[in-house]
């Protein structure tokens, strides 16, 4: 019996299709920062204009992540049914339309509803693009994944000052409309993938069902057979077997905690810097410089692990500890240069850990489970963001300081260190 995805064999050297997939992932990650950082930079303005509390607007940004995670498990099915190119094109349109419509809202509730559309497009495109990169690279997967993830860093470097400039020039409504126009360009990446994937083989998942049907013509009216067939289809299409895999849960904790910490920093850092006495322009510059640190981490980590200079295990564990300590120290910093170093170190650690987590997922679970692993981790990450994303803002509203908020984020970042050590122990023992 063929397994899902077996009709799309991995390509070790990437090739033209592989680098187009890397470009798609890079642009998608830039767009993600444009959406979330746009809300972060505009947070004080939106709070005044929409007469809303800090935690409500922070929760809206977290809700974008939540909705995207809920739809993530369907990404693999959409990819097999329509192909990566058409899925990316549709996602690009959805992502671009959301901020344009959001520029006309009058309340925070309306803004939340509009941004649901962006959340769906962002996560489906992420899972599809990451799975495409994972299938096309083997020896240089860490490098390819790192290049794709540099979109986050480039986005921070570009969008933080750009959104501030647009906000000062056109106001928050004009800024949202222009951000939407920029995001619409993502659809062009899908068009490139349609061109480069015209010869894409059909998924054998549907052939597998067809084979079952042809081999059991006499049982089509049997209710038990139909239920069994439905169960098998759900099991393979949604990769449900991952949910009973302890290794998956260890990797999921690593991914969820890192992404949650990064997202909370992106959402609340500008406000935190302002509460420490820095101007909005200073905070935007801190983020931009931090984006450079993240960019360096993502570019350098690939050759280090692909060439065997250092293992993914050691690299990941070291920077989990460093990143956690930096989160906890950030609220206490009042020096201009100390804040700049802090921003650089936070994003350096986060960028490196997320890239290496992708490598560990492929190493531990295998290429055939990439799509399912990315999708279910997105759901878990979004659930964490939805249930806890408002909490740093609420702590600020209650205490008047971000000290407790960022300390909590630092603790969350440190949680995966023990599961990571156990995962390495059992993986090495199994060799």
Brief overview, please?
This protein is mostly helical. The protein is built from 18 helices and no strands.
Please name the defining characteristics of this protein.
single chain; 431 residues; mainly alpha; Growth Hormone, Chain: A; disordered N terminus
What is the molecular shape? globular
The CATH topology is what? Answer: Growth Hormone, Chain: A
List how many beta strands DSSP finds. Answer: 0
CATH superfamily: MFS general substrate transporter like domains
- What's the CATH class, please? Mainly Alpha
CATH architecture classification name: Up-down Bundle
The fraction of residues assigned to DSSP E strands is under 5%
Number of helical segments with 4 or more residues: 18
Euclidean distance between termini CA atoms: 27 Å
- Rg is 22 Å
Structural classification: mainly alpha
Helix content: over 70%
Q: What value does the average pLDDT take?
A: 81
Q: Main β-sheet: number of strands, strand sense, barrel status?
A: none
Could you spell the SSE succession in H and E letters?
A: HHHHHHHHHHHHHHHHHH
Which regions are unreliable across 5 or more consecutive residues at pLDDT < 50? 1-12, 196-210
The total tally of domains equals 1
What quaternary form is this?
single chain
